[in-house]
User: What shape does this take?
Amino acid sequence: MPPWFEYRDRVSFAAFRGSVSAIGVQFLFSNCSLMKSVDLSGLDTSSATSTYFMFADCSSLVSVDLSNLDTSSVKYMSNMFYGRSSLASVDLPGLDTSSVRGMRWMFRTCSSLTSLDLSSLDVSLTRSMSFMFEGCSSLSSLDLSSFDTSSAENMRCMFDGCSSLARVALGAGFSFEGSGGSRQCSLPDGYWRASSGDAVYAAVDVPSDRADVYSRPTFHDATASTPHLDGVS
Assistant: This one.
């Protein structure tokens, strides 16, 4: 545990001056419920193998910049932002996930997050993505176009509770079956229109391994496209 763990409920700001090397950053700011900002520019995480629970339950932290974070050796990012109920934005384009095996619960119950661009992430070795976005009730847009889920053994409940999700970008490497032979998860219940044509799918029938952007059809669109519904009887 970090040295400030005993008074974590009084921390409002954190910064690393100079260069601070860390072998592990799991639980680093976990339960710092009053922390509103953090400066990670002086933190050297090049040897860190886990960011497990790093920002979990930081309920007052609205945004975080991870652009200077070296995660090239990190294998476990599970629960990294779990319970961040005030998180409205997170900067992830520079995050190196090429070695990551676990991402379960990574954004679970980040209920203020409205959009998430994960198009730069490499998840080709990731085995667990269960509950990854579960409870992200304000999330309306999600870009997973770079996701290759061929190694995923557990994708259970990945999108559960994403009641506001209206647009999802999936790439040719995204399979709802993961590494298994049967479907592990689906987009939130309802119908989804593929941008590449007129097809409208029930959530459980949105195809795997097909690059496309899926959006919720309006009532008028769904009615007009009823003859083209795929997988719906």
Notes: Confidence is low (pLDDT under 50) at residues 222-233. The chain has one helix and 13 strands. The helical segments are 219-224.
